[in-house]
Amino acid sequence: MHHKPKHSTHHSPADSTDAHAKSHRWLLPVLLVAQLMVILDITAVNIALPHIAMDLKMSGSTISWTITSYSLIFGSLLLFGGRAADLLGRRRMFVTGLGVFTASSFASAMAGSAAMLFASRAGQGLGAAILSPAALSIITSAYQGSRRAKALSAWGAVGGAGAAVGVLVGGVLTQFTDWRTIFYVNLPVAAVLLFASLKVVPADTQKPRWRGLDLAGAALATTSLAAIVYGITQAHSAGWTSIQTHVCGIGGLAGLAAFAIYELHIDKPLLRVERIADRAVGGGLVLMLAVAGTIFGLFLLCSLYLQNVLGWGPLTTGLAFVPLALSAGIGSHAAGHVISKHGVRGPLAGSFAVAAVGMFLLSRVGAHGSYLTDVLPGMLVAGVALGVATVSVSMAILTGTRQEENGMISGLNSTGHEIGGTLGIAIFSTIAAGSGAILGPQAAPGIGDAFLVAALVASLASVMALALLPRAQHFLAKLALNPQAMPVH
User: Fold this and answer.
1) Which terminal residue of the chain has fewer beta carbons within 10 Å of its beta carbon, N or C?
2) 214 or 59, higher pLDDT
3) Residue 482 has pLDDT above 90, yes or no
4) Average of pLDDT values for 3-7?
5) Which of 375, 399, 151, 395 is nearest to 291 (CA)?
6) 155-187 tens-digit pLDDT
7) How far apart (Å, rounded) are the C-alpha atoms in residues 300 and 96?
8) pLDDT for position 486
9) Does the pLDDT value for residue 216 go beyond 80?
10) Residue 47 and residue 171: Cα distance in Å, rounded?
């Protein structure tokens, strides 16, 4: 009788380890589903825009705010979200972001006017800006070495393939139900995620550190990025040479310069600007703008061609993106294995060069073209290449960060992705509309020109990867080190 308590105590560590292993096994799936929900909500809305505009009686000049109100808040607040994850707690921020995103999804589904929808979409952007860098920070702190590479490959697969799956989901829901279902479907998914995250996401061991949160820097960075995003997204209607575009662009860049100077002179900055001097981080950030802009442009231009030129409906357009989803997923999966052997410099240069070939194939789309001969080949080639590039550039930025700056660098990575995507949409849509027509066969030349510019951007990025990123031996040595032991320099 006396020995039973000892015997029971003897087995409890094993039971605890078993439970920990099970929760750790479910950690990555929970985080990936949360990120997938955020991504699906971006691309699914794109395909439902005509129905939303008709239902809420939006004009052509205001419909774009359904997307812009989300991307403006999401992209400009990601740095703050990443830093908040470091200081206030990764799980706390993940759960908070999930709650804000879910409440805003419900408000979006209930929207009875354009203004309410725009405000609700901005709320979704806020929730996503808190949730996404926290989830990525949890991944980079929970996994090391080759396991981190595999986890980030899965994250990249969600980013690359999830966008295409979102177009399919949006097409199905819009075709057979109602555009509001796109937002309603988030509610049960978020409920499951909330329950699972409290079980499997490691609890925050430290109390929130509010004093270290750089609110002034966050306000300056957010305002500056928002000004740039606003200027770019409105440039098509206001004019690229207009005073508004110049004030927003120059003002935003001046604000970012002031932000960098300010961050160098405070004790606990929102972003350690000197980390950008690291070739993997700084070079990776520049290339993230290129890869995200190219991916967003690929989705936009293919969708414009299929719906506006070939006259396809939402469901068939969504189905047309399934091969792109599969090819991007294959590229993302292969990237982890390639990077662990060859670093990021060679794979990124090669993937951008292949993406340029895919974009060039797409630039030949004609007024009376065919999906099988004019769209699919280029879509597959570009999809695989951009899947590799997405994972490679994230690995370049994130590898070698210290434990306490995972959220900060994760926020920088995500900011580059969203701002790059916004740039891509603004620039490529402007080029596509250059022919003066956005509907019918006459829109094809402008779309082809935009694809050609995308090919040139990818070619330039290939050369930049060789010039900006560290050699394989240097990067692989950093990859093999324990992230917690990495010095900041």
Assistant:
1) N
2) 214
3) no
4) 49
5) 395
6) 877 766 677 778 888 888 888 888 899 999 999
7) 31
8) 31
9) yes
10) 6
Q: How far is CA 405 from the centre of its chain?
A: 19
Contact criterion met (CB below 8 Å) for 483 and 140 = yes
Q: What is the predicted pLDDT for the residue at 282?
A: 84
Q: What is the chain's length? A: 489
Report residue 232 as tokens: 């770019």
User: How does pLDDT run across 136-150, given as a tens digit for each residue?
Assistant: 888 888 887 778 778
> Is the pLDDT assigned to residue 115 strictly greater than 70?
yes
pTM above 0.90, yes or no: no
